[in-house]
Amino acid sequence: MEITPQVADAVARSGIADGLCVVYVPHTTAAVCINENADPDVRADVEAFLARLIPEQAGFAHREGNSDSHIKSILTGPSVTLLVDGSRPLLGRWQGVYLCEFDGPRTREVWVKVLNARQG
Questions:
Q1: Which residues of 1-107 form beta strands (DSSP E)?
Q2: pLDDT tens-digit map of 42-53
Q3: Which domains does the chain have, with CATH numbers?
Q4: Dihedrals φ, ψ of 14, to 5°?
Q5: Which distant-in-sequence residues (6+ apart) come within 8 Å of 116 by Cβ?
Q6: How far is the C-alpha of 50 from the C-alpha of 52, rounded, in Å?
Q7: What percent of the chain has pLDDT over 90?
Q8: Distance CA 85, CA 20 (A)
Q9: pTM for the model
Q10: How far is CA 58 from CA 28, 45, 71, 100, in A?
């Protein structure tokens, strides 16, 4: 799910013009990534590839049955860091920030922390 507008809003509300923005998901079966934002086929391709690479029913020992989701989360990562300039997160022309849900649907939190590059 694309969360770029929510991240941009959090950066704007922070009042910080120049710094860093950390986007973090505190869940072990979800992740955050930066991906292409123009062609939805890329998102579908990534999802399909991860499903082939780490199938849900691969004989994992975890009793809850979602080891594939944990592994996908580990590979994708719980956070991304963005540069902030002019009170906006800097992204490339085709980039967007995404919450990756590997074990849902579930209610998820995304934490955004904006750090000021200027001291004082």
A1: 18-24, 30-36, 79-85, 88-89, 95-101
A2: 999 999 999 999
A3: 4-115 (2.60.120.460)
A4: -65, -25
A5: 16, 18, 19
A6: 5
A7: 89
A8: 9
A9: 0.92
A10: 19, 20, 12, 21
